[in-house]
């Protein structure tokens, strides 16, 4: 399986997908989601799930990754830019902007893409997409652990895409 994105140039996500975007919610969370294309998935794939996260956030969060987007029950192989906000054809989990250790945003406002704002340096972001043999019994607002538990025994293949986002200077 292979992943590509039209939102990456020279190894970096375009500014619109993070803090340099004009698409911000009331607490300053970027909401304009990244596009991606899934190719060469197993023929018996029923749905896809995805996790978009930042391991470079460990220094900022004092020890845990920043989850930017989780989604499940995706049937399309092309996800357009800003799909998270424009009537998504998938369910979305909460991102780390919801955590009381970060911005403590309401779960309803965090069950979507929460973009990149690396405060200390350029960070590397990882998108992992899983091809699944079923739809998952999840609703908007699920947590990452619920997604990973639901996927157990149903993963046919996975692909990883990485790119950086430049340090966000407020």
Major sheet: order of its strands?
8-6-5-9-10
Give the % helix: under 10%
Total domain units: 1
Q: What's the overall geometry? A: globular
CA distance, first residue to last residue: 37 Å
Task: Please describe what this structure looks like.
It holds the Pfam family PBP. This is YbhB/YbcL family Raf kinase inhibitor-like protein. With 170 residues, the chain is mostly beta strands. It has one domain (2-165): Phosphatidylethanolamine-binding Protein (Alpha-Beta Complex), CATH 3.90.280. The chain contains three helices and ten strands, in the order βββββαβββαβαβ. The protein has a five-stranded antiparallel β-sheet with strand order 8-6-5-9-10, covered by helices on one side. A hairpin with a 2-residue loop joins β2 and β3 (12-13). The termini are far apart.
Topology (elements, then pairings):
Layout: E1 2-4, E2 8-9, E3 12-13, E4 36-39, E5 47-54, H1 58-61, E6 66-74, E7 78-79, E8 91-92, H2 107-110, E9 123-132, H3 144-151, E10 155-165
Antiparallel strand pairs: 1-4, 2-3, 4-7, 5-6, 5-9, 6-8, 9-10
Pfam family, one: PBP
InterPro entries: PEBP (IPR008914), PEBP-like_sf (IPR036610), YbhB_YbcL/LppC-like (IPR005247)
Organism: Latilactobacillus sakei subsp. sakei (strain 23K) (Lactobacillus sakei subsp. sakei)
């Amino acid at each position: 399986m292979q992943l590509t994105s039209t939102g990456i140039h020279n190894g970096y996500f375009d500014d619109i997908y993070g803090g340099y975007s004009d698409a911000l919610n009331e607490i300053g969370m970027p909401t304009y989601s990244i596009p991606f294309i899934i190719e060469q998935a197993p023929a018996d794939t029923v749905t896809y799930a995805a996790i978009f996260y930042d391991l470079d956030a460990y220094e900022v969060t004092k020890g845990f990754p920043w989850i930017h987007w989780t989604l499940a029950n995706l049937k399309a192989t092309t996800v357009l830019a800003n799909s998270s906000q424009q009537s998504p054809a998938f369910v979305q989990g909460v991102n780390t902007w919801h955590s009381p250790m970060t911005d403590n945003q309401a779960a309803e406002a965090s069950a979507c893409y929460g973009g990149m704002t690396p405060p200390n340096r350029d960070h590397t972001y990882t998108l992992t997409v899983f091809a699944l043999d079923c739809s998952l019994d999840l609703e908007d607002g699920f947590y990452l652990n619920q997604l990973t538990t639901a996927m157990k025994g149903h993963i046919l293949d996975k692909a990883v895409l990485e790119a950086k986002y430049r340090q966000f200077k407020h």
